Structures are given as structure tokens and as C-alpha cells.
Amino acid sequence: MSKFSGRRGGVSVSVLGLALALAAGGQVAAPAALAQDADSKTDTGTEKDDGAVSQLSLGKIVVSTGIDKVAIDTPQSVTTLDQEDIDNAQASTIGDLLEGIPGVSSVGGVSGLGQGFNIRGMGTGVADSDSRILINVDGVSKFFEQYRMGGFFSEPELYKRVEVLRGPSSSTLYGAGALAGVINFQTKDASDFLRGDDRLMVRVKGSGESNADARAGSVIIAGRPTDNLDLLLSLSSRVSDDYTDGNGDVVVPSKAEGDSVLTKARYYVGGDKGHSVWASAENWQNDSYQVYDQAEAFATTPVRRKTVNESYIIGYDNAFDGNDWLDVKAQLAYSNMQVDQTENAGFSPNGVGYNSSYVYKTVQGRLENTSTLTFGPDWNAFVTTGLQTYKQERRNPRYRQDGSYINPGATTHPEGDLTRYSAFIQGEFIWKEKLTIIPGVRVDRVKLESDYLIATQTKPESVEDTGVSPKIAVLYSFNDNFNLFGSLSRTVRMPVLDEVYSATATQPLNLNLENEESTNYEVGGAVAFGSLFTDRDKLHAKLTVFRNNVDNLIARGTTGSPYFRNFGEARYEGVELEAEYATRRFFTRAALSVVDGEDRTGLTSAGLPKPIIPLNTVPADELTLNAGYVIPSWNLTLGWRGEFAKEAYKYNATTGAVTDTTDDYNIHSLYAVWKPQGEAVLRGVDVRLSVDNIGDEYFQRHLSSLPAEGRTVKLSVGKTF
Fold first, then answer.
1. CB contact at 8 A, 278 and 265
2. Cβ–Cβ under 8 Å, residues 3 and 35
3. ∠ CA 274-275-279 to the nearest 5 degrees?
4. Residue 376's CB: how many other CB atoms inside 10 A?
């Protein structure tokens, strides 16, 4: 690996030009100025006492790409949010938390139950079956697809780290079908709070928001009763009313509610921190009245929904100190995502059901090992191999208002089972800390089964298929200041239950769907400089250009054709730029995302020539900026954020005519973070105050079905004892 280190976040396009010019012949930092030793970094890889420099992003450690590395040395687009970023976001929903990441958008509604996600133009808000994006929590895959609801329900306070790996090259480690990318969440651990000889730590936090009358609170208790045992209990609760937009109108549905519990225990075998057994239990739930259509607010009849997202994990880690061949991680998990939908009197109570449940229960296992190898004086290698199993049962019992039972599953939500067995291998071969070559391949075997019948059909057959996902990535560091990278990855997305077994009397199921096939190309480069204008300043920038060709697209058919069928080809391409500059007091970051997507099928369903039409899942071009100033003597950070989006359109899928327009917008916010360290009573206190959308502008993000929040003041206060 190169010696790029101590990096983070974003600046402006002009900064990238400056950096490239300097790389060609300008001032160059000595290697020692960029390379940090472990004693100068926190657990997120940022400097402890360098003020604004610690606000940078491209130098954060990335743990989801194989061997831990800093973001700027990773040959793909990846963004890490650490605990400080999560706290500073003051997010009410997971969508709020991810919104500022380049290439990532929330899709559909804006409530806690209405959000899906979109990465690089892939992801929809209606079906939310989008297995094109893989979501993991502590290694446990989360997949939910109730029609017109969000696909992931959780609480931002549970997490200490979020990593978004954009593009399909992450399929190697996480699963075939990650055409758009992977989102990995990591929950808090007791070791995040206990320091030195600490035996007990308590953290309390409360927050509020003016616009939606939001209130939230959390309590974390971390204990170490013996040197070998860490324990954690985290409790949090959130309630938020519907907010008002910039025009002063109440936005329905936009409530964000939920209660969560997280417990963890880790036992270190023989006191060895690299050898441990651990277990965790996580539960998030909501019980409230919502409109039926959370994704688009199309059907606004009210229903009561009790929603649960829970996971139980047993894990084993053993680094086998002194043995380079073994570094083993294993876990077994049970997950349940369930919505109990009751009192549905207004939307198809005798079809969807007056009372019904949408239940996704999974049992998952993962075993992986990383070997460290040396080939002569110049080559080092890390080889990760692994096996995964995944078994999901999807059930949908439904009852009429009189209590009579309806056939389980709906025509567009058939019950069924998914079984998957996977094997993968990825190597990282490093020559003289200059050249890094990362080949990998994954094989997935999937079986789908369903007993769902409609009157005109017999029991459908099971469907089985195998997907192979190879990739290769290369990164070359010319020196400590400049690298180039490129990758070629190919993956398949095998159909899900809805796509194979959905059917009506006029549209049969389709047991012959072909896999979607993605071929993705990425090239880019990064620059890193230190001591440019001051003694300890840093400048970093990373540029990624990508093209993703997807064949055999799966989408809804028309009357007379199968309910889902293969349509042809789509192309997604774009640019992502992250740049940043910081001194000990001043910092600024920028993130630019430009994505285009086209339906390139070529022929209509009747076999006639078809024009190339832009895809409606493509987000608006967007630039986010962040600038701030640190006052070390007060432990105070003051800052400004800006979000700038270009006008965007939606199109008729047949004619290409514009059917809807989302206006461009420029949104400004101010924030302050204060961590007093003086009097004993104030030690361990952190205060965050922000004013979002200070101009009270009316705007709507392109892939959202509802307008965004108007001006709002957010305040959070935490105290660690």
C-alpha cells in the first residue's frame, strides 16, 4: 500500500486542478509529513489533536474492502461515516444520514418507513425489491420488499460506522447482484467507550428539532466487569411529527418514529484481544398509523403498522497471533423484518387484507479467513477466502374484515423461500508499496420456491441458478502524492421471488427470467499533499469515472406478457469527485456526483426500433460543500453546509417525452459543535446546534416523492460519565 494516510472528505473542482498542477511540478510534501504512526491516530485513523485536519474524510480507514486501508488508497469509490460524522448529521432517518454521500440518494417517501436507496442511478422507491443494493448490519444481510414501503428500517443512533461501497466490484465479498453497491452498517461496541482501566461508562443524549417537533433520547451503558469481558446496553427512542416544507405546508407522511434496543457481549479468550467470542441482539420497532403508500403517497388511506427489525448474532474472531496463514472470522445470525398491517379499511381490505403480515425471516452464516503471504523482498499478499449461507422464508398471511382467511400471499407478493450458498476469494498483491493488484471471484448458487397459485395455474416449479462474479482492480502509486487506479468487474443479479412468481389472470409468472448481467469499468486517480501553505495543512482529492452496462434488465411487462420479463440493456455512467483542504483551524470539503442513465434496449415489445431514452431512476447532478473553522481554545467548531442540485426530468418510457420536472435548488445550513473541557461538570459534554435550510426554501429532491423540510433548528446535548 502507498503511504497516503491521514485523509478525509471534499473541496472544490478548482482544488483538484491545483493539486494536479502541484503533482506535475509544484511543492511536494516529504513522506514523513503524510505517513502517521498509530500513536497519532484515533480508532478512525484521524489525528487526535490537529483541529480542523481531523474533519477530513479521504484519510478515514475503510474496513469493508478486504484489508483495512484508507479511502484514498482504495481502487473504488467508497465513503466512510464515523461516529463523529453520524453525531454531526443529527439525522432523524437513515436517509438523512446518507443524503450527503456522492452518488447516493434516498428514494420514495421521507418517513422512517418510506425510504429506499439509490446508488449511481439504480434503486427504486415503489417495489423496494432492489437487490441491486445490498444492505448489511454487522455482516447480517437485510432484505425487505413490501410493495410501496421502504426496504430498511432502523435508528441512526445505533451505529458507529457506515461505509458505502459504490459499484459492483463489492459483489466479490458481499453477494452477487450488488450492481449499484453495498451499504455496511456497524453498531456500537463497549470498547468504543471504555478507555484504559475503565470498568463502567454511561452516556446519555437528548435532542430536539423545531420544524417537526421531534424529540429523541438515548442511554448507553458500557461495562467491563472483568478484564476479559465487555458488555454494552444501548436504548434509544425517537418521535417526530409530520414536518412543514418551505411553503409552510404540512408534508404527509413524514413522521419518523421508533424505539431501539442493542445489547452486546464480547469475551476475550485468555485476554487476547485478537481472540474473542461475541454475541449481539438488536431490535428496532415502530407502532403508528401511516398512509398505505409510504413510498409515493399515491394511496393515502390510513393503516396501522407495527414494524420490527431485529437481529441476533453469535460470532467468533481469532487472529491466531503468530500464524500468518490464519485470521478467522465466523458468525451465525437470525434476522426478522416484519410489518403487521392492521385496520386497512380503505385500500383493498379483501385483497391485500384488512389485517395482514409481511414477514421475512432469515438464517445466515458466514466464515472467512485472511492469510498474509510474502513473496521475496518486494511482494506481499493478503488472500481472503470465505463461505456464506442464506435461507429466507417470506410469509404473508392475510385476513378479511370479518376475520375470514385469504389465500396467503398476494398476486404481486407471493409467499416463498430463497436459499443461497456462496463461496468467494479475493487477493491483494502489493509490490514495493507502489502497485496493488486485487483480483477476486464469487460463486453464488440460488434456489427459489413458491407454493402460490392463482386459479389458472398449477403449482409452480422451483427455480435454481448459479451466478459468477469476477473482478480485478489495480492501483499504482507514483509517489506519496499521486496514484491512479482502475477496475473491471462483472456480476449477475438473479431474479427475486416477486420477479419470478408474481402473476395475474392476464399476466402469467415467468420461470424463465434470465439473470441481469453487469459489466462495470472504473478509472480514477487521487492526490495528497501536506505542508502546502502552512506547517500542518493537508490537501486531498479523488476522482472516479465509471460506466456500468447492464444487460437483460428485469422490469414489469404489459397485459398479455409475463408479469416480469427481460427488456434489454441499460447504461449508467458518471463522475464522482471528492476533494478537501484543511489547516489546524480551517477545513473545507466538496463532493460532486454526475450520473447519466439510458435505456438502450433498441426495440419495443413489438420489435420496432426504439429511441434511447433516459432512465427515471437517475438522480439529479449534485454538489455538496462543507466549510468550517475550529477555535481550539474553546473546543468549538463553526461551519456551513451547502447542497446544490441541477434541474432534473422524468420521461415517458415509450416516447421519451418529458413528463415531470424537478427544479434546481441551492440549500444552505449552519452548524456549531462545542465540546467543553474546562470545569469537571462540563467534561464529557458535547453540544451540537444546527439551522438547516436557513432560507426556508421550498425544494424537492429528484427521486423523492415528497418535498423536503423547510427551515428547522436542531439541538442535541450528550454527556459521558
1. yes
2. yes
3. 115
4. 6
> Can you read off the three cell numbers belonging to residue 127?
417495489
Does residue 513 contact residue 504 with C-beta atoms inside 8 Å? no
* Res. 9: pLDDT tops 60: no
Per the CB < 8 A criterion, the answer to whether 115 and 197 are in contact is: no
Quote the DSSP letter at residue 158: G
**Shortest CA distance to 79 belongs to which of 6, 164, 138, 7?**
164
* Structural domain includes residue 306: yes
- 615 burial class (0-12, 13-18, 19+ CB within 10 angstroms)? buried
Question: Tens of pLDDT along 575-611?
Answer: 999 999 999 999 999 999 999 999 888 666 566 667 8
How far is residue 412's CA from residue 352's CA, in Å, rounded to a whole number?
Answer: 10
**Sheet bearing 140-142, strands edge to edge:** 78-81, 159-166, 181-187, 133-137, 140-142
How would you classify the pairing of strands 586-599 and 622-631? Answer: antiparallel
Backbone angles phi, psi at 652, to 5 degrees: -70, 125
Q: In this structure, what DSSP letter does residue 351 have? A: I
**Which one-letter amino acid corresponds to residue 278?**
W
pTM for the structure as a whole: 0.90
Residue type, 412: T
> In terms of residues, how long is the chain?
721
Instruction: Indicate if the pLDDT at residue 405 is higher than 80.
Output: yes
* Residue environment code for 40-66, b if the CB has 16+ CB neighbours within 10 A, otherwise e: ebeebbbbeebbbbbbbbbbbbbebbb
Peptide bond into 253 cis (omega under 30): yes
Task: Determine, yes or no, domain membership for 47.
Answer: yes
Domain assignment of residue 408, yes or no:
yes
What are the tens digits of pLDDT across the range 101-111? Answer: 998 998 888 88
Asked if 459 and 416 touch (Cβ cutoff 8 Å), the reply is no
Q: 713 with 212: CB under 8 angstroms?
A: no
First to last CA, the chain: 40
134-155 in b/e form (b: 16+ CB < 10 A) is bbbbbbbbbbbbbbbbbbbbbb
Residue 609 corresponds to which amino acid?
P
DSSP 643: E
Average pLDDT, the chain: 87
Q: Number of folded domains in the chain?
A: 1
β-pairing, 69-70 vs 140-142, is: unpaired
**What is the span of the domain harbouring residue 354?**
13-239+279-720
If phi over 0 gives left and psi between -120 and 50 gives alpha, with beta otherwise, what is residue 193?
Answer: alpha
Name 446's bridge partners.
420, 465
Count of other CB atoms within 10 angstroms of residue 298? 11
What is the torsional sign of CA 454, 460, 462, 466? negative
Note whether residue 267 is domain-resident.
no
Contact in structure between 597 and 121 (CB atoms under 8 Å): yes
CATH code of residue 291? 2.40.170.20
Longest pairwise C-alpha distance within the chain? 80
Residues 597-612 as b/e (b if ≥16 CB within 10 A, e otherwise) read bbbbbeeeeeeeebee
- Residue 511 cell numbers, joined: 420461470
Task: Return d(Cα 281, Cα 589) in angstroms, integer.
Answer: 37
